[in-house]
Amino acid sequence: MPNIGPAELLVILVIALLVFGPKKLPELGKSLGSGIREFRRSTQGLKEELEGSLRETPPAAGPAPVQPAPVQTVVAQAVVPPVAPPAEAAPRPASDVLPPRP
Fold first, then answer.
1. Is 50 contained in some domain?
2. What residue numbers bound the domain in which 34 lies?
3. Contact 31, 23 (CB under 8 A)
4. What pLDDT, in 10s, does the model give residues 30-63?
5. What start and end residues bound the annotated signal peptide (predicted)?
6. What confidence category does residue 69 fall into, taking pLDDT thresholds of 50, 70 and 90?
């Protein structure tokens, strides 16, 4: 973000003076200042409330120790799929069989 120097501030002030006029400009500055002040107060209040709630929270106890499950022995039987006899070839349709050529 570019830095704003004294020359830029002077140009902004002149433009604001031309747009709002000399009577309205002090009122705008006052309302802008009070708005910024109120914003700071509310953010400070939220910050203090958050820090207070963090201090009041007791430290969480560590996770309960995990008990291992009882060990069970399982005997597996070998599974052999039954062997199917080879399928017979299906007869070919008559339209696939060509008559012999003379």
1. yes
2. 26-56
3. no
4. 999 999 999 999 999 999 998 888 887 666 666 7
5. none
6. confident
What single-letter DSSP state applies at residue 41? H
Alpha-carbon distances, residue 39 vs 32, 48, 73, 74 (angstroms) = 11, 14, 68, 68
The answer to whether 25 and 16 have CB atoms below 8 angstroms apart is yes
For residue 79, give the amino acid letter. Answer: V
Query: Based on the number of CB atoms within 10 Å of its own CB, is 20 exposed (0-12), middle (13-18) or buried (19 or more)?
Result: middle
* pTM of this prediction exceeds 0.85: no
Domain count, the chain: 1
Cβ burial, residue 16 (10 Å; 0-12/13-18/19+): middle
